[in-house]
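Chapter summary example.
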Amino acid sequence: MTHWPTALPPSGDIPDPARVDPAVLGVLLDRHGWHRRGGAAGRYSRWTPPGAAAPSGGTSLLVPDTTAFPDSEDLLGEALTALARSAVPSARDVLVSLAVPSDEIRWWRDVPDGAAGVVGAAGWTAAEQLRDAARQILLAGALAVRARTGFHGTRHRRRALAALEGILVGPAPGGRDLTACLPVETGRDVAVRLYHALHATREAIDFQRTTKGMEAFDSAVGAGVSRELTEAVIALVRGSEGTRISLAWAPAAGTPEGCPARPEPVEFSPGDLPALRRAGARYQQDEPAVAVRITGAVVRLRRSGPRGAGIVRLRVLAGAEVPHVRLELDEEAYRIAGHAHLVGLPIRVEGQLESRGGFRRLTRASQVVPVQVDEAERDRLMKSLQENVDYFEEACTGE
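The structure predicted for these 399 residues follows.
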């Protein structure tokens, strides 16, 4: 998931105090473990960082309760400046959430001290495992927004990855916890889908462990559960003694419809792995082939001799949300594909997009015809032909 940022941006820019709702700031401080320690009732409250036993134990913020008083904006400005200068890690998270209203997803792993409590290769490995699992979970959520299906394979991945480009991710020190901020404007659909899908996964596991039946996983597909999600949760749990995923809505945007204001965390343990593995295999095995009519540019041709059937690889332009497909064509259809490739034209073909291999293969191919395109697209395809000329020479010579 190379498009997903690996760290939060620098907090050099302080949000404009005139645009900050003090109630939102208070919710964010509370969410990130800051302590409210009194203040002038109805006027302002005093906040100290997580772990500070008293106001002298660290940064102390005065946050106005409302913007009704003349000095409210000044107090907000001073509080935001203090956050920007604070060495407390959560201060940066609060500023980012103020600058870009975001839903937060937090992962926590109970990893053995030998994996998380040391500096060096072991600690780095645990942090990478957590980060990779979080990436997979977010991608599974974005895929579920595109389609509710038990197995996505390569389908919808480009759009799902694009939906994750704005996500901001904090560090994962020691591989124990990690926080991702999903901007409400672009990422709320993913956050909502993950809320439903993760809880449905937990319920399906509990049902399976109680009854030994897998039916709950079948109905969970409608909530967004898929092989991709079960594999992601397996990656999160593997090597840990237990995991927890919590979600909090952006206070500035409110609670999305159909969701609780304070969602309960979802927990998974090593004892859940057998059910998750069975569900993932079931999803992949049961996903049917899809009838499609694909338009694609020929990027590779290969056959064993100068005549007969051959294998063609297409870069998909329309008809299916996959990047490439591979198909076998009879001699006449292969000739049509070869001629289209030579003159820089895509072809259109009908067939069955097979789930085996992740929806990368088209079977029962028929109705192969070249497709006219505008000059700009034709030039681009011709450039692609020149870059892949070796593949075409192999096809022509039968090598």
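To summarize the output: The chain has a mean pLDDT of 83.
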